[in-house]
Amino acid sequence: MAPDFVAPGVNVKGVYPTGYGTMTGTSAAAAVASGACALLLQRDIVKGNEPSMSMDRVNSLLISGCKRQENIKYPNTQWGFGMLNLFNSFEFLKES
Fold it and tell me: I want to staple 29 with a disulfide (CB 3.0 to 4.6 A). Which of 9, 47, 66, 93 is the partner?
């Protein structure tokens, strides 16, 4: 089933070749999700908290941290397991 989760992709603020701006679309959402993966990998591999961190583990942590709405049944083909929430993923790591 796809997607695993959804990431912000509307009016994402950032720095672009022409200066500051916003972007909307899957390319913005992919950048946000990639950044979240990089931060988890930095915490665990680079800083030595979990040196054998795999991408399956990263995906699992991102899914575990997803924000879910009460009126939606998860997982589903529109929202996956929910909306990316990296803070919740890091909170999940602190508890485990």
Answer: 9
